[in-house]
Amino acid sequence: MNDINDILAKHFSGEATVEETQKVEEWKLQHAEEYAVMSEAWKTADKNLLEGLEFKTFDHKTAWEKVDEQLVDEKEIKVIKMTFYKRVAAACAILLAGFAGFWLLNQGPSYNTFANTDNAPKEITLPDGSNVWLAANSTLDYQEDFENERNLKLKGEAFFEVARDEAHPFIITTEFGEIEVLGTAFNVNVTENSTEVGVDHGRVAVRNENGEEDLTIGEFAVANADGVKEISNPDVNYNSWKTGIFNFNETSINEVIDLLNKHYATKVELVSSEKGEVESFSGTFADEPIETIIESIVLTCRVEAEYGDNLIRLK
C-alpha cells in the first residue's frame, strides 16, 4: 500500500487515481484539520499561473517531508502544519522561479513612451539625436537600448528628422507596416485604415507583408491591409500640422478647421447656421498667428468669430 503522504501529494497535484482518491477520503475522516490546512495552502500557490508550462525540477512526491498520520495531539498538529507550509513554499518557489525565467526569456525589448496629450505638436529629441515632432493625441514608443536598436512604434502622426547612422537602421513599426531609414526627414500618419508616409528629403523604405516601396524626396505612399502603394498627388498640406504653412485653394471650411486644429493650441469650432453651409476658403499662410487666419476667414466667408479661452467659434 502506498504511503498516505505520497497519495496526498498526488491528490493535491491532481494526479491521484480513483482508488487513491478513495483512500484520501477515508483519511480525511480522521484528519480533517490537517487536510483543511494542506488544501488551503495548496490553493494559495495558485497553480493556474503555471498551467501549460513544464518544470522538470518539481516532484510532487518530495514537495513536503513525510507526515506521520499518527500525530494527532494539538502540539504535533502544529508541527505538521508548519512542515507542510514550508515544504509547499519551497516547492512553489522552484516553480515560480522557473516560470519567471520562462516569462523573461519570452518578453520583447522594453520601450519608453512619449504621449502628446497637448492640443499642439510637441518636439522630442531621441537619445541618438534624432528629432521628432509628435502631433496631438499621438504616442511614440522607442526602445530603451535605443543607441544599439533604433526601434520605435507610432500611433497617430509624427514628423521625423533622423540622425544618420548606417550601422543602426531607424525602424518605425505601425499597425499597417514598418518604415526603415538611415538618415532622412519624413512624415508618418497612422490612421484607422492605413499608414501614410511622405518624404521631405532622403530615402525611406515602406513595407508590410503584402508589398514594399522605396521613396525619395517629394514621394508618398500608403500602406494598408492590401499592401503598399505610392501616391502620385498628395495633399499639399500633408505636414502643415508641423510646419504651420498652409495653402488653401477653394478648400472646404471643415477641412480648413481640421488642419488648423492640428497645428494650433487654440481650437476652432464651426457652429451650424440656418443659412446653409459656409463657403470654401482660399489663402496662403506661413506660420501666422491663428487670429490672422481667422480674420481672413471672417472677411471672405461671411462668418462671425467669437473668441473664448483657447477656443474660437465661427458662426
Descriptive key words:
seven-stranded antiparallel β-sheet, Jelly Rolls, alpha+beta, 30% helix, 315 residues, 7 helices, elongated, seven-stranded mixed β-sheet, Phage tail protein beta-alpha-beta fold, 19 strands, single chain
Would you give an account of this structure?
With 315 residues, the chain is an alpha+beta fold. The chain has 3 domains: 4-105, no CATH class; 111-231, Jelly Rolls (Sandwich); 244-314, Phage tail protein beta-alpha-beta fold (3-Layer(bab) Sandwich). 30% of the residues lie in helices and 32% in strands. It contains 7 helices and 19 strands. The strands form 4 sheets. It has a 7-stranded mixed sheet, with no helix packed on it. Strand 7 and strand 8 form a beta hairpin. Helix 2 (18-30) crosses helix 3 (32-44) and helix 3 (32-44) packs parallel to helix 4 (74-105). It is elongated. It starts with a helix and ends with a strand.
Helix-strand layout with pairing:
Layout: H1 4-12, H2 18-30, H3 32-44, H4 74-105, E1 111-116, E2 122-125, E3 131-134, E4 138-143, E5 151-155, E6 157-161, E7 170-174, E8 177-181, E9 185-190, E10 195-201, E11 203-208, E12 211-216, E13 220-224, E14 227-231, H5 240-243, E15 245-251, H6 253-263, E16 267-270, E17 281-286, H7 290-301, E18 305-308, E19 311-314
Parallel strand pairs: 5-7, 16-19
Antiparallel strand pairs: 1-4, 2-3, 3-6, 4-5, 6-9, 7-8, 8-11, 9-10, 10-13, 11-12, 13-14, 15-17, 18-19
Helix pairs in contact: 1-2, 2-3, 3-4
CATH architecture of the largest domain: Sandwich
Low-confidence runs (pLDDT<50, min 5 residues)? 45-82, 93-106
Reading side by side through the largest sheet, how are the strands ordered? Answer: 1-4-5-7-8-11-12
- Which fold name fills CATH's third level, the topology of the largest domain? Jelly Rolls
Mean pLDDT: 79
Hey, roughly how much beta strand do the residues contain? 25-35%
CATH class of the largest domain: Mainly Beta
Give a count of the beta strands, DSSP E runs of length 2 or more: 19
